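re: the backbone from monday

yeah here it is again, tokenized this time
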């Protein structure tokens, strides 16, 4: 894919999403911007350099077989959903940005790059002096809720299918019917992902 040479100079690695950081966005929309992937990579690379970024990982909804040995996605890779997570070590500590607002992963990556640019402007214009604007983006510890293990539509469908369908899964796991509350949360998360 074009533009990756900019990221390669920063030692960026692409990985499958291990755990989505929040509930998936409902009502995704078209992006209000339009840019080539090369233009997005240019902005992202500039912002990563400004943060003195290290250990840069971009997570996409791919499986390992869709990532080349050099750490970049295969040309024919198609993520199962458009979410993107950017995690890095910066001069302000570990940061993590996750976006699935838009229909394509390329638009979500651009949203992260433009968001990073906007955060940097807060310092540039003297509003902050020590990177306080990044506090909300500090990498949080991984969730311990087993329901968060259901990350993709494929995982959601597999869970629902294992019960013979959505209604059967809900009935079998509902705590009021003697089911396990943890398994019920998994089923409800799966329901949201396939809805």
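seq for it, each position gets an aa:
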């Amino acid at each position: 894919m074009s533009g990756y040479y900019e990221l390669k100079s920063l030692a960026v690695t692409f990985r499958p999403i291990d755990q989505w950081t929040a509930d998936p966005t409902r009502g995704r929309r078209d992006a209000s911007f339009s840019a080539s992937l090369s233009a997005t990579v240019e902005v992202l690379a500039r912002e990563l350099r400004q943060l003195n970024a290290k250990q840069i990982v971009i997570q996409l909804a791919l499986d390992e077989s869709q990532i080349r040995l050099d750490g970049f996605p295969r040309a024919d890779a198609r993520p199962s959903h458009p979410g993107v997570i950017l995690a890095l070590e910066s001069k302000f500590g570990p940061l993590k940005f996750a976006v699935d607002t838009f229909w394509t992963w390329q638009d979500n990556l651009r949203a992260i790059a433009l968001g990073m640019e906007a955060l940097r402007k807060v310092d540039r214009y003297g509003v902050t002096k020590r990177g306080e604007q990044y506090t909300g983006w500090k990498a949080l510890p991984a969730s311990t809720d087993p329901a968060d293990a259901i990350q993709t539509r494929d995982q959601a469908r597999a869970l629902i299918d294992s019960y013979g369908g959505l209604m059967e899964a809900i009935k079998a796991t509902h705590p009021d019917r003697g089911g396990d509350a943890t398994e019920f949360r998994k089923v409800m998360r799966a329901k949201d992902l396939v809805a």
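The chain has two domains: 4-137, 146-194. The mean pLDDT is 84.
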